[in-house]
Structure of ATP-dependent RNA helicase:
Amino acid sequence: MADDGMLLNFEFGDAPLKSQVKFKGGRWRDRLKAQRSVKLHQDGPSSTPQDDDASRSAKRPRTEDGGSHRYAKMPRTADSNTKPPSHAMKTGQISSSLFTSNPAAVTDFEQPPVEEAEPAKPSNAPLSDEAENFHSLGLSRRVAQHLATKLEMKAPTAIQKNTVPVLIKEDSDAFLQAETGSGKTLAYLLPIVQRIMALSLNEDGTPKKTRVHRNSGLFAIILAPTRELCKQIAAVLEKLLRCASWLVCTTVIGGESKKSEKARIRKGVNILIATPGRLTDHLDNTEVLNVGTVRWLVLDEGDRMMEMGFEDDLKAIVRKIRVDKLEKENAEGVVLDGVLPSRRVTVLCSATMKMNVQKLGEISLEDAVHITASKSEMEGDADASNEAAFSAPSQLKQACIIAPAKLRLVTLIALLKSTFARKGSVMKAIIFISCADSVDFHYELLKDTKALEPPTPEDSGTQPDRNIHTESTVAPAAYVTSPANPKVMLHRLHGSLTQPVRSATLNAFSTCKDPAVLITTDISSRGLDVPAVDLVIEYDPAFAGADHVHRIGRTARAGRAGKAVLFLLPGSEEGYTSILSTSTPIAPQLYESILQKGLASAVNLPSTPTTAETEKQTWSSRAEALQLHLEQRLLAAASPASAANDDNAEDGGPPSKFNNAKGKPRQQQQKGYPIKPKDNPLLDAGRRAFRSHIRAYATHVREERVYFDITQLHLGHMAKAFGLREPPGGIGGGVARRAHNKGGGGGAGEKKGRMVGSGGANVGSSSSTRRDDGDGDGVGAAVDEDAARRMKQKMRMVMNASSEFNIG
Ligand SMILES: Nc1ncnc2c1ncn2[C@@H]1O[C@H](COP(=O)(O)OP(=O)(O)OP(=O)(O)O)[C@@H](O)[C@H]1O
């Protein structure tokens, strides 16, 4: 049978096939393991909890005290207990084997539900405006009034309350630490603007004789890790400076012409917002950039800048600004000292405290005050707890879906479909994916290509204006729409896009009036502030646990509600939740319940009109049909005929030699003849995404590889999550050595897909992986040849002895 990942509907009756395999040779331990592995695969998810107990506790990650890992309890619903039919599509059709041979979750779902706790009080909301107001913090009436009337902010948040008075009165360095969405940006901007304004205004608000203007000197530099974040900070500052229109801010962020940046600096600027690399460049090469009057250096998202490899740039910037002679008055004779700080003040901001933040603190701070928005501020509690700063906002609801690799894609679609099923429930969602290639693929797969067909002459005048920068990054979504929300807009964003495209896409997502989804990499995990984001989906977990807090912090901002969902694979990944610092429990959810809810109604498949028969399908049949449809889209070659049939027109490949005039695959394709990647760009994108995903998986931080163990990945199953029927080769580098994969897709080819062996050692990542680290460099790790060889030996032994199906 061709190894195309499809299974014919062999009926085996009720009696399950038992292993006839006898294991000979090798050590008894290895023989036992192999035997167990075969049994586990045969039993599959349908095995009883009792049967599975031993293997579960064996697989369950150990906690530090040696006990096994336990999760928040979650009941199985009556319906979810029903095992989905393994051959859901009857009548001799070809069926993908979506529900067979999936590993069981180790999470204990059997216990009664935890009583729904009272909704948590928001931990990052503004304080009550009766108790606190901006004027009482030392800000002028002019600024306080501007905040209330133009920015609709009447009361400060806890971190603002604690920071503003200190930075207005004192000239010491500061380390601001508060949870995501708590208003850190204004916490440092307000005192800076207040003190610069004081050069021109008396305390009662009357103008002084001398008024500073854009040419009076550069007073503050704010550094942030990504261009998006710089632009966002600039947008907040511009709004704030509308009450002091004589002051000017600008950005120097790369991705734009250096010449125009130089011209803006020459024209005069009082507050500069920059990425570290670009600022270093200007400090070295732009003569008009005078830092003699600079009084503040702000390092926003300091740990991220360190992570992205900006350490040398940051050291150079700090050195240059410290060493440069401090001008006590500016060129026009305006006395700066006394009104502005009499020394250079550095402010470091972060929501989390990592080792590299401490290192950056050592580089940049002197006798700094540590300012937090501790819980005591919110609750009047005497014991301030720094813990609050490390965890997610308390009102943020967190869940994790333990979905087997094969079911990841359909579960994601089902989750989005149910999310957008009710009008007005969720308006914006962000999906985090590990690498740029995978973002591109999922965007192409999920977009509605029909809606993007070029306008016909009859359409002229009826089409909305298209933004040239967002043509390839914004599109209506297919599959996830519902009668309540027939239009959902899809966006993609990563660091490999050009700057104008990045900016336009982010703007399109922020201002979108329709329900919207942003598929993105970690480039959007820091600082991004889109208030209407109600849901964050971590489809691929973050590379380091601390980043989880930043990602989910894109929702539940400034006291608003929000939900975050984390996708995990059954097995060792489930233990990951135990190391995440959260103030609320992460509720495990059954993927079956997500599928059941999301696929309760028929999915609108472009090539398959909904009929009375499809309306009657069960959720599991719909999941199978959806997966089959997606796989067929990848396999269909991009000829005009197949484009009409399979919704592949956007891929614009050469006319297919595999398709007949009706757009049906030719016989040779059904027999499993290989299709060259160039025949279908979507297939090519899927393979590229898969390879990058696997390489990126190997770059999880060393301490967390016990949960994200590449040797436990089943490449054949994972391929299905990319609509592929078999894993493509060419993963490259150390990962390929570890993987040593020969496996096929979800069908017969599953035999050799799992990577079994001892984990733990270094795993190499190919430099070609487009794991997206924003404006910085990718991450690589050394290859442990020895560990790879040991694992390979083990794998060969187990694979030779067993298969998942043991047919024949
Ligand atoms: N005093 C306030 N009242 C109401 N809203 C506020 C207040 N201060 C800030 N906000 C809003 O809170 C949101 C989050 O602010 P900000 O982006 O500064 O958070 P942050 O602490 O820097 O978060 P992150 O760590 O994720 O970067 C913004 O939309 C901002 O407009």
User: Anything to note?
Assistant: Residues 619-635 form the longest helix (17 residues). The pocket of adenosine-5'-triphosphate is lined by residues 126, 153, 156-157, 160, 178, 180-186, 351, 527, 529, 531, 553, 557-558 (CB under 6 Å).
